[in-house]
Amino acid sequence: MRANILLPIAILAASPAIAADPAARLSAYNDGVVAIMKQKLPLAARIDRFEPLVRSYYDMPAIAALVIGPVWAKTSAADRTAAIDALTHHSAVSLARNFASYGGERFTVDPNVVTRGASRIVRVTISSGKDRNVLLYRMNQSDGDWRIVDVVAGGVSQLAVQRADLASTVASGGAAGLAKRLAQIDAKAK
After folding, report:
1. Domains of the chain
2. What is the pTM of this model?
């Protein structure tokens, strides 16, 4: 009888729905960010560390489709891959520049996740001394995990900023133009 009671508990523990809690997933992401910050690495090494974190925690295909807009539907597979790779690297460069070293920052994830359609909004407060910055992460299910699609800081959507900044590049060169432009921008950052 006891074995019959434990079996449903074991099934629930292995369930992807339970393992894929967006707040817990974001806590793991923040732990990864802090671990990189604590290493006090030069920019190029931080970029190398952040890129796998971006690939694991961000929904880069969805972000690429949203940044590129309607042209995405007509974009070749090779150009889609190039755009996703370029945006992934660009995101890693941005993170490496914003999170250079650890100075005691605390990342506090609010467990009260807000549901907006298929998305989940997770609030993270970054505290450093008396300074507090609140980030809102929009997360969607992708490949069985909750993945970041947008970050809102100071009421400004980073996805909207990226789309606006790259709109003329996409209009003139499509996804391939975007990949080329981001490579140029990122080369200057190093």
Report:
1. 21-189 (3.10.450.710)
2. 0.86
